[in-house]
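Design request, tokens follow.
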């Protein structure tokens, strides 16, 4: 099980202690700019969260200038390695999540989340399984029958190896009695590529965050068969896996971490800005607009959560046949 390094723990505790002493309104004096890295392609879940954080921090004035960059590859591990090993010119942060934990485990990455400074878990979402509107797969039951008949004939367009899409597809197969290693899972760099693959007829089904498919589901170009959460998405008439007969529920999550080389004062200022952000009406609106689940946890809770998630996701990867 990973542990937080002494340096990361020291920065985390110093930042937490400083929150009471540094009003969020003063964060702009200490953190005038921020480089925010999304370890995936534009349009992906990581990228969407980075852009939302950018918008709220700038709208609140707590970090006046936020620059978002994308570095895709290796289930997020390429971006993670660049983030940890580079020498940033200004304060920098990284969007992390379920997929990155899985990517570190599945690729046996030398750089891990032990090497960063936790700031906060921010939100969660659920996956959806979709098909083109023209598909003869009308329900999740139809998909189950097709997968049971010939697993390799059903191609799944999804995100990175070890990510929530891959794990969910593997657990789905296992739950319906199919060998997870037999499914035909096709890796894509992000939700935008998954969407294009499904719309282009290059995959039988797509699996990714529901919000990445919402516009095309609403327009009628895609049909959503089910969502992976414990409950339906508010206002969305799509059943959960369990409602459709598959006893499985999986939820994704994402958060933000600071560069391990960051000054303690910069980490404290970032934590103060994020603390202000998650309490703001702008953030509440961002969550509502994107259909995200509010799952905020501050730095002191996010660090231990990352440790427990490494164990939990590792077991899920084994159960799904990924490891």
């Amino acid at each position: 099980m990973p542990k937080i390094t002494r340096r990361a723990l020291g920065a985390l505790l110093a930042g937490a202690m400083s929150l009471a002493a540094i009003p969020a309104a003063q964060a702009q004096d200490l953190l005038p700019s921020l480089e925010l890295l999304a370890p995936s392609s534009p349009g992906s879940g990581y990228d969407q969260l980075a852009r939302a954080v950018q918008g709220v921090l700038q709208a609140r004035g707590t970090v006046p200038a936020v620059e978002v960059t994308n570095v895709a590859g290796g289930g997020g591990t390429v971006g993670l390695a660049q983030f940890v090993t580079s020498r940033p010119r200004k304060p920098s942060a990284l969007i992390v999540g379920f997929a990155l934990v899985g990517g570190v485990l599945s690729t046996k990455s030398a750089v891990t989340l032990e090497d960063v400074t936790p700031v906060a878990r921010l939100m969660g979402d659920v996956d959806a399984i979709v098909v083109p509107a023209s598909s003869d797969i009308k329900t999740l039951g139809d998909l189950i029958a097709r997968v049971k008949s010939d697993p390799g004939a059903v191609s799944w367009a999804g995100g990175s190896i070890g990510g929530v899409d891959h794990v969910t597809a593997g657990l789905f197969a296992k739950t319906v009695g199919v060998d997870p290693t037999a499914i035909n899972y096709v890796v894509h760099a992000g939700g935008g590529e998954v969407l294009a693959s499904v719309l282009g007829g290059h995959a039988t089904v797509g699996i990714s965050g529901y919000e990445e498919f919402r516009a095309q589901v609403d327009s009628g170009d895609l049909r959503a068969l089910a969502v992976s959460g414990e409950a339906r998405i508010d206002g969305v008439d799509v059943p959960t896996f369990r409602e459709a007969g598959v006893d499985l529920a999986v939820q994704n999550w994402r958060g933000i971490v600071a560069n391990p080389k960051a000054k303690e004062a910069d980490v404290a200022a970032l934590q103060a800005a994020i603390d202000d952000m998650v309490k703001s009406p702008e953030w509440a609106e961002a969550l509502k607009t994107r259909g995200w689940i509010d799952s905020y946890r501050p730095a002191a809770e996010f660090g231990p959560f990352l440790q427990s998630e490494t164990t939990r996701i590792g077991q899920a990867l084994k159960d799904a046949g990924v490891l």
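Comment from the thread starter after seeing the answer: thanks! Residues 6-28 have pLDDT under 50 and may be disordered.
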